[in-house]
Design a protein that fits this description.
- With 448 residues, this protein is α/β, with parallel strands linked by helices.
- Helices cover 37% and strands 22% of the residues.
- The chain folds into 2 domains: 1-14 and 358-443, Arc Repressor Mutant, subunit A; 21-318, tm_1862 like domain (pyruvate-formate lyase- activating enzyme, Alpha-Beta Horseshoe), CATH 3.80.30.
- The strands form 5 sheets. Strands 9-10-8-7-6-5-4-1-13 form a 9-stranded mixed β-sheet, with helices on both faces. Strands 14-15-16 form a 3-stranded antiparallel β-sheet, with helices on one face. A 3-stranded antiparallel β-sheet has the order 17-19-18.
- Helix 5 (147-156) links the parallel strand 5 (129-140) and strand 6.
- Helix 3 (74-94) packs across helix 11 (337-346) and helix 4 (114-127) packs parallel to helix 5 (147-156).
- The relative contact order is 0.16.
- The model has no long low-confidence stretch (mean pLDDT 95).
- The structure holds S-adenosylmethionine and iron/sulfur cluster.
- The site of iron/sulfur cluster has 11 residues, from loops.
């Protein structure tokens, strides 16, 4: 890959976990609008729940998530009470519609006490109609885990665990304030599997301070030795203007775009050599895994958690900063935990902002999602779904292929397809469909 190509296409663009993207959310979408959207869902609509726990007992300097450090459990306990109020309120509105997946993210839901893990799972099942075979997943920080917590998550019905690793190189771990041994991680994988968890995911990062290509390769090999069903390999998003604690990271120690690219390619090739299927921009899965099967069948989706196999009609976000998506649009809850709690207890609106998906947004959002998931776009599919509204999107796609001088995108029999050279630049290519790009002053992380 040439240096000039990487320089040309690694300009900052959104990660496209939504369209319109989060900087275009506005205050005009509030709780009343959201509850109207919820009530209008067809009775046979299915939903997936995302519950956010915005606390950690340590702060990793690289972290881009909505979280804050707590040294005591009292703030977590108070927050869970407020979250329970929201769970009951939204559960009442969703009524008898099926919930096919429940995901706990953060922050670190792993720091909840065993009693709270079990109690919250009961509250969720009491408030929503969670189907028998629903997926129940959680993000686990190995540093939080002990036997009682493993037992509690198992009792709560855990089916999938996502474990953060990032990088095993001790020098990198010091630079990102995340010390975590291989043995500790191995123990967590074994402990959840021993309790019947069928699917394990491990998160890795490239582009970290002091990280090298050899280090990323060594981490990829160590991760594969635990044979997780899925591996996420994310590029470190350095956005210190949003996440102040990232200022703790020495920018001089960050790899440049070319070194980042080399690390990502080396680690990805190693994972593929190790038997993993390459999925979308940053995921890998064993061939039997539902994500590999879905990707193969063109049934992969993308939402705020990244790639997913979940084909729900609605994603319900619960908790401070949580984002939801309904067919009518996106909503985000208030971010500050104290304000979230105040509003929840007072019975006030928790939604802080959002955006409606217009008739012209829908085909563009669909095109972006298919490109990110399939690296291809089918014009017939687009026209069948959106009728005449598909025309401007087909025009953008055709123009992209026609004007491409770098061999990234080509016209296929009935659409466009990214070449292997184009795939790493899928975010930049997707940006061509974004009618809102450059309409405000939002700053994004590097595309590669
Ligand atoms: C909410 S965090 C992880 C959950 C758990 N607290 C842990 O640390 O293991 C989810 C994942 O997001 C990824 N992540 C966090 N900050 C990031 C950033 N700035 N850029 C890219 N990925 C990031 C990490 O790979 C992390 O494991
Ligand atoms: S990476 Fe995980 S443990 Fe570290 S600060 Fe972020 S959410 Fe907390």
């Amino acid at each position: 890959m040439s240096r000039s190509l990487i320089a040309k296409y690694s300009k900052p663009v959104p990660r496209y976990t939504s369209y319109p993207t989060a900087p275009h959310f506005h205050k005009g979408i509030d709780q009343t609008v959201y509850e109207g959207w919820l009530s209008a869902l067809p009775s046979d609509a299915s939903a997936s729940l995302y519950l956010h726990l915005p606390f950690c007992d340590r702060l990793c300097w690289f972290c881009g998530c909505h979280t804050k450090q707590v040294n005591r459990y009292a703030p977590v306990a108070a927050y869970l009470k407020a979250l329970s109020v929201e769970v009951a309120r939204i559960g009442g509105l969703l009524g008898q519609r099926d919930v096919t997946a429940v995901h706990w993210g953060g922050g670190s839901p792993s720091l909840m006490t065993p009693e709270d893990i079990v109690a919250m799972a009961k509250r969720v099942r009491n408030a929503f109609r969670v189907t028998e075979d629903a997926e129940f997943s959680v993000e686990l920080d190995p540093n939080d885990m002990d036997e009682a917590r493993f037992d509690a998550w198992a009792e709560a019905g855990l089916t999938r665990a996502s474990i953060g690793v990032q990088d095993f190189d001790p020098q990198v771990q010091v630079a990102i304030n995340r010390i975590q041994t291989f043995e500790q991680t191995q123990h967590v994988v074994a402990a959840v599997r021993a309790r019947g968890v069928r699917s394990v995911n491990i998160d890795m990062l490239y582009g970290l301070p002091h990280q090298t290509q050899d280090g990323a390769l060594a981490t990829a090999r160590a991760v594969m030795s635990m044979r997780p069903d899925r591996i996420a390999l994310f590029g470190y998003a350095h956005v210190p203007w949003v996440k102040k604690h990232q200022n703790m990271i020495d920018e001089a120690a960050l790899p440049d775009s070319l070194a980042r690219y080399d690390q990502s390619v080396a680690a990805a090739e190693e994972l593929v050599r190790g038997g993993y299927v390459d999925i979308g921009m940053d995921h890998f899965a064993l061939p039997h895994d539902a994500m590999a099967v879905a990707a193969n069948a063109g049934r992969l989706h993308r939402n705020f958690q990244g790639y997913t196999v979940d084909a729900h009609d609605a994603l319900i976000g619960l908790g401070a900063s949580a984002i939801g998506k309904l067919p009518q649009g996106y909503v985000q809850n208030v971010v500050a935990t104290h304000e979230y709690q105040r509003r929840s207890f007072a019975g006030e609106g928790i939604v802080d902002r959002g955006v409606a998906i217009t008739e012209t947004d829908a085909p563009r959002g669909y095109a972006i999602e298919r490109l990110m998931c399939d690296f291809a776009l089918d014009f017939d599919d687009l026209r069948q779904r959106f009728g005449q509204q598909a025309d401007p999107v087909v025009a953008v796609a055709s123009e992209l292929a026609r004007c491409d001088v770098d061999g990234l995108v080509a016209l296929s029999t009935n659409g466009i397809e990214l070449s292997s050279t184009g795939r790493p630049f899928v975010r930049s290519i997707a940006a061509g469909f974004d009618a809102y790009l450059n309409q405000n002053s939002a700053r994004y992380s590097k595309a590669v």
